[in-house]
Write a structure and sequence with these properties.
With about 300 residues, this protein is of the alpha/beta class. Helices cover about 45% and strands about 10% of the residues. Strand 7, helix 6 and strand 8 form a beta-alpha-beta unit. The protein starts with 16 loop residues before the first strand and ends with a helix.
């Protein structure tokens, strides 16, 4: 059957290539593309994945250390991409990427052994045709946003944004087009019309990251450490405060969002709202896949 059929018509065949067993519980596992994720599909107005410009489903490697989220992600996207491997840490991810040469790599920043930034950088350097989609949380996506771009990441999508945004990200990234989750874009583009404080755009970029250490600000904004220190001196003088803590509080008063943005907590359960949302999507996708498997017998 042609790969250009619609997700509802396509019944993928199982492909297996396994190293260390086939569960994907720890390490390298190449798996077949199962069905799943039919709650929300990419917009048909965009024609994806039926568009003739996409004659085949991109060969995809998933790099996610959490088994639940990895399984849920697989269930959601397996009808639209050909999943050739799943890995749980950065070192094995890079090894599998080099061996299989995927079209698409979906990876979190927070990976063990070798972080997702380094995996992305080496992948884009060694395999320019491969597209990397960073699939992460608020904290890592906002803390490392500029570093992701410099590493060659094609797009950034929040785990908490849900299937519709994920499919939109996949649609863009598989066409080698940039994609940034709208929720991230709203945060990393600071306002420039700050009344009375006379801060430059670059100073605002430093200001909203003042609760990071100077070295982290330097790495994220690609500045020399001394330049960061000079910006902070100017910020304190312009805001008429004596400490960076006071400057950060002033930023909040000016309606700026401090980065990296931590996930919000439910006031009743004190649990991370973003994590609960991501797990709910994963569990729902797994439930649908399990129901389809039962109907198949």
């Amino acid at each position: 059957m042609s790969d250009t059929h619609s997700p509802d018509e396509f019944e993928p065949k199982t492909q297996l290539e396994t190293a260390r067993g086939g569960s994907g519980r720890s390490g390298k596992t190449a798996v077949g593309a199962g069905s799943g994720g039919d709650s929300e599909k990419p917009g048909h107005s965009a024609g994806w994945p039926d568009d003739p410009d996409l004659p085949h489903r991109p060969r995809t490697i998933i790099c996610e250390k959490d088994e639940l989220l990895r399984s849920g992600l697989r269930a959601m996207i397996a009808s639209f991409v050909s999943i050739i491997a799943e890995v749980s840490n950065g070192t094995e991810a890079l090894e599998m990427i080099r061996r299989l040469g995927p079209d698409l790599v979906i990876l979190d920043v927070d990976l063990d052994q070798l972080n997702g930034l380094e995996v992305c950088r080496r992948t884009c350097s060694e395999l320019p045709a491969a597209n990397c989609l960073i699939y992460s949380n608020y904290y890592h996506a906002t803390k490392y946003h500029n570093q992701i771009l410099r590493a060659g990441g094609r797009g950034v999508c929040l785990k908490s944004s849900g299937p519709r945004t994920l499919f939109e990200a996949l649609e863009h990234v598989t066409r080698s087009l940039p994609y940034y989750d709208p929720k991230i874009t709203q945060l990393i583009k600071p306002r420039t019309n700050m009344p009375s404080c006379n801060l430059t755009d670059r100073e605002i970029e430093v200001l909203i990251r003042l609760h990071l250490c100077n070295r982290e600000i330097s790495e994220e904004l690609d500045m020399k450490l001394r330049t960061v220190e000079k910006h902070i001196e100017c910020i304190l003088a312009k805001l008429k405060v004596s400490t960076r803590t006071a400057a950060a509080l002033k930023a909040v008063q000016l309606d700026l969002v401090l980065l990296p943005k931590m996930p919000e907590r439910d006031p009743e359960t004190d649990k991370l709202i973003e994590l609960i949302t991501a797990e709910e999507y994963a569990q729902e996708a797994i439930r649908r896949q399990s129901a389809r498997d039962k109907r198949a017998f």
